[in-house]
Structure formats: C-alpha cells, structure tokens
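REQUEST FORM: STRUCTURE PREDICTION
Request ID: SP-0412
Submitted by: Lab K.M.
Chain count: 1
Length (residues): 472
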Amino acid sequence: MLPVNLFNLLSSRAGALQRHYAAILLRIYDLAEFNRFGLTREVVIAEIVDYLTGEGSEAMTTPPAGDFDSAEGEPPPPTGDVQEYAGWILRRLVEAGWLEREQQADYTEFVILPDYAFTLLEAMRAIQQNKPREYTGQLYAAHQLLTSQSDDFSPALALTQAYENVRQVVRGLNELNQNIRRYTERVTRDRPVAELLRLQYEDYSQVLGHAYHALKTSDHVSRYRRDIIARLQVWQLDNDTLSRIADELATQGRLTPAQAADEVRHYIQFIIHQLESLDPLLEEIDRRHAQYLRTSLRHIRYQLVSADGNFKDRLASLARHLAALQGEGEKYPPAEMPVFQTPRVRHPDRDSLYTLPRRRAPFAPAPVIRPLLDPAEVMTLRAATLQEMGQAITPARIQRFVGQFFNGHRAIHIASLPPDAFDGEEGLSWLIYTIAYGNHPEVNYELEPLPGEPVALGTVRVKPFRLVKRDA
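STATUS: Completed
RESULT:
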C-alpha cells in the first residue's frame, strides 16, 4: 500500500514548490540508484543545497503559499538560511513517504528510498527524459532464449523470461500506437507553421521516428516470430517437456505442480497468441503513421496558403487595404492585384432546352452460334475428364487404400504399417485423408487414439493410433 499523502507534494496543493519537489526527488534517485553503501543525511542535504543554490534558486525566494498545512507538520523556515530550508524539504519528503530514515548503531543517519519510490521515480525520469521505449531487443532476447542449444539450457527460465519480453514488446507496440494517435490529435489544433514544422521534423521523429523505422526494417517482428512459435508448438506436443518445465517452475516459484502446469500453459498460449495477432496492430500503426503525416502536411499547407487566417479575417484585411487605397486618392486597384475570377459563359445549343424522351429501338439479340468440335478433340476432352474424376477423393477410394493394410486382421497399429506407406507428398496426402475419413459413416474402419510418444510417418510425426475394422 502507498502512503496516503504520497502525492500531495506533487499535486496542486504544493503550489509553487511542486516542480522543485519533483526535481529534488529525481536528484536523490540518481544518487541512490547505484549507490552501494547508502545515502547519509549529510549527502542528501548537500544535494538539496546544491539544487537550491543552482537551478532551483527561485524556490528560496518563492513564498510556499498553499504548500504548508498546519495539520501536516512544522511551518517552513525563513528562506534566508539554505541549510535550514534544505532540512525542512527533507523532512517534508520523509513525512509524505517518499523517503525513510534509518539510524545505525553509531548514530549515523541514512536516507532510504522505499521500493515503491524507486518504481515511481524511474517512471517520472523516463517521462522527463522523453525517451522512446526500446522493445525490439527484447524480442531478439526471447528468440535467443527459446532457441538456445546450450548444455545448461533451462526451459523454465527461458519461458518465463520470454513471456516477460514478449509482454513488453506488445506493450511497447501499443504505446507506440497510442503516441501516434496523441500526436495526430495535437496537430489538428490551431498551431502556427513553425510549431507544426517542429512537430513534423523534430519532436515526432525524435520520440517515435527511430522506433517506428526499426520496427519496419532491421528489427521487424517477423524475423523472430516464426522460430519462437515453432519452438513453443513443439513444446506443446511434448508432454515430457511440459512436465519438466512445470517441475522446474514449481521449484523456482514456490508453486504446486498443478499451478506450475497452468502457468506454463498460460505462458505458451500467451506468447503464441500475441505474436500471431501482431499483424492487425502493425497495420493500425501504419495507418496512424500515414494519417499523422497527411494531417500535418495538410495543416502546414493550409497555414502557408492562408497566412492571414480564415476567410473572415482575409476579407477584413482586403477591405482595410482597399480603404487605405481609397484614402490615398486611388480610383483603381493596383496593377499587381490579381484579376477577379469570372466563370466561363456558355452559349445555348440544341441540347440546352428540354427534349422529349425518345423511344428506344427494340432489342435484337445476336444469333447464338454453337461451335462444332472435332471428334478426336471430343475424345481427348472426355478422357481428361474421366481421369480427373478417377483422381477425385471419395470414401470408397479411401476405404480401398486403408483396406490393403489389414491383411485379414481386425485392427492394426499405425507403427505396424509399411515404412514407405506415407512417403513423399502423395503419401502425406493419403495420411491426411486416412485420418480425416476415420469417422466417416461410409467407410468400414475407424481411428482409436492411443497414449504414448508421437510416431514418425513419412515426413511428419503424429500421435499414435490404430485402425480398427467396423462390424459389418
């Protein structure tokens, strides 16, 4: 749970000191981010004093109106003593919950940032620096994790890390999509040409342009998507691999085997579903990007063409200029003035007046001529048609193909079939038809699934089953 008054210092209640509180917190966060030994109170006070005597000097001269509430703590000290003022700011940050104090055995006081403060300040710094989200490398990392062939490969660790990386990728793409919409809405407002050009060539390209360019070129998601999905689908069909991942995850995450198995299935399905459904999101990003460019250029063109504003303003400006010319004694407009656009005059002709409707001529269809075929050509076409009909797949043909394997037996295991029964592309087609027609009412056999490992048939592996003759 977050402290109740945590955001009071960053809200409108903080008045003029609102941005100074945020700047000081970010400075303390920079000190504490990679500090190994902790921050003493003296170090934090020195950092606040450095800010108050530098870029935040106006905080010392600005009365903290609306910043102090008598129910919250001590009143602010006089603004003349920077050390006392820095100590007062530090106490306010501790009271609000952004910082905590810890006293050692030798009475040395350390200032600590709580865990939630690290998370919130990292988000605030990312917003302040206005950096685009880097998500393309995460998809590459997920690809390397899942396709690794090293001896110390841990499938549970690879799956959990890949899940987090793919989750960040999808989140980054949605963030990119929403930012494009935000910029599109911003350029639709009334802005001068200079501001529109800055948004077009500076702000937009710096915030979204590089990420969008990398998304469509070097780090395109399709480079890694196929391999990731193929590996996860292999894991889905391998019960031993799923059990091993679940056991390892249960050991690492303190979960029961059943909970770990559910987590593994959820991770795999989430990654496959998100990667397979990225195409509509990428199309939406393309559409919004093109919409932004069209809208921005249209507004720039309109501003350049209509430099004096809308039609009402231009009409008033024209009237003022004509009045000025009339006041100077001019009777005619200047020679460089554009001429008025006059519509072209068209003379009436015989089609200008109303004409009575005319009756259409009766429809005369063209004669139908039936071509005569040569008898030899007729025989050739008939033979080709009979050959195509003979190659058509029917239940009777499938039954004849499967019946040759029974050899007097009532049931036969799929592993007992001849090794070359389903070789090549034609054999793969017969295997598909054999399985597909297994429950057809017009064939005299059926398929019974069996437990065990997948069996290699031709170029594919299928779950074991047996062919059983139906009773006549």
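NOTES: The chain has three domains: 8-128, 131-300, 391-469.
Reviewed by: T.R.
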